[in-house]
Amino acid sequence: MKILVVLKDIGYEPKEFKTTVSPEDMGYYGEYDILEDVEVNITVRKTDIGYALKVKGETTMKFICARCLEEFERRYIFQDENILRKSVDSLERLSDKDVETIYIDKDEIDVMPILRDIFLTFLPINPLCSPDCLGICPVCGSKMYKERHKHKVSTRKLGDILKKEVRM
Ligand SMILES: [Zn+2]
Ligand SMILES: [Zn+2]
Hints:
Elements: E1 4-6, E2 15-21, H1 23-26, E3 33-34, E4 38-46, E5 51-64, E6 71-86, E7 100-104, E8 108-110, H2 112-121, H3 155-167
Parallel strand pairs: 6-7
Antiparallel strand pairs: 1-8, 2-4, 3-5, 4-5, 5-6
Bound molecules: zinc ion (2 copies).
The site of one zinc ion has 6 residues, from loops.
């Protein structure tokens, strides 16, 4: 799948494009699941050195909590801005290093690889089901909550159990 934007039609006034990309077309085969179509919002405008391209994607994903390993669903919004320049100008250097420059040699650009790139770049490395997730209990392996999760088995009682077993 391609998302083609014809650049020669773009002026200094920002032009907006909307489209959707199915989870399959995102071509992501990572750890998490994309649960619905990605809503894509593209804004392009001409600048003195080329074109400014803003790409934003939004979808719902199934993540796995890095602490308690439980699955959870959350909106995933990712966006970034790129500068598009004709390759002839490539000897010049941009002073603004925060904005990535993409060199183009045609009057149209396929936004699909850029979208995929931004999607991957902003995926959380250690997603958490909640910021204060307490993770998994080291004793029983179940998810820990702030309230009441105590184990009856203290070390003293464990000693008693061992003694009984010795007697038997
Ligand atoms: Zn968690
Ligand atoms: Zn436990």
